UniProtKB/TrEMBL annotation:
Gene Ontology MF term list: methyltransferase activity
Annotated Gene3D superfamilies: Cobalt-precorrin-4 Transmethylase, Domain 1, Methyltransferase, Cobalt-precorrin-4 Transmethylase, Domain 2
Keyword S-adenosyl-L-methionine: yes
Coiled coil: none
Domain (Tetrapyrrole methylase) ranges: 7-210
This protein's name: Precorrin-3B C17-methyltransferase
Gene Ontology BP term (one): methylation
Residues annotated as transmembrane: none
Listed pathway(s): Cofactor biosynthesis; adenosylcobalamin biosynthesis
One Pfam family from the record: TP_methylase
InterPro entries: 4pyrrol_Mease (IPR000878), 4pyrrol_Methylase_sf (IPR035996), 4pyrrole_Mease_sub1 (IPR014777), 4pyrrole_Mease_sub2 (IPR014776), Cbl_synth_CobJ/CibH_dom (IPR006363), Precorrin_MeTrfase (IPR051810)
Keywords: Cobalamin biosynthesis, Methyltransferase, S-adenosyl-L-methionine, Transferase
Translocase keyword on record: no
Amino acid sequence: MGSSLKVVGLGPGDSALLTPQAQKAITDADVIVGYTLYVDLVPEELKEGKELVSTGMMGEMARCEKAIEIALSGKSTVVVCSGDPGIYAMSGLIYELAEEHLDTLEIEVVAGIPALSAASALLGAPLMHDFAVISLSDLLTEWDIIEKRLKAAAEADFVIVLYNPKSKRRDWQIGKALEIVGTVRDAGTPVGLVKSAYRKEQEVKVFSLNSFDIEQVDMLSTIIIGNSTTRMIGQNIVTPRGYLKKYRK
């Protein structure tokens, strides 16, 4: 294969959390393609001498098609994504759009630290047991399906991680999601809100389910709702894995 396209996860945004593999992929590339905000997150020294191709919000199709076109022309290309490229990001779309070129185009996905891991670390240890991750964006998935998944996760007592909870055009979904979870979960259940994890604008806040302040949520927020065993230890949200229950009797 002569053409190379890598889909690279930048992690939360702090260059200290950019993996060595991701750094090498960007360093070796001729062209960096991505959403403008994510291209801006790439350390300046890694962008030196590179061709930069950036698009605005909602430009995912055009962005990926352009990246494939550039890669097929012979230039080593990377598509940069925040978090991990395989979690609500671009790697799946790249594979779908490039399906007919897979005999000549080599695609590699370079993992990054996802938002859920960053948020979990900042909140304590809320994901020590089974959890479900649900995006509240209904741009590509009908709300009826999202609501069904929320109900199932809540009733099964999963810790629930919410991605894409709110945007300028979508402001009601988070309230509805909390209402759904609240029908089967205790009002005092810990809920963590992390905004812009590991960036200079970072905010980390903890609420109970019945006191959660929806007005503080934005498009860069990740929300983690505890399960029936989740509790506060100091200022940290912790979901016990079960070690003490099993071994300390």
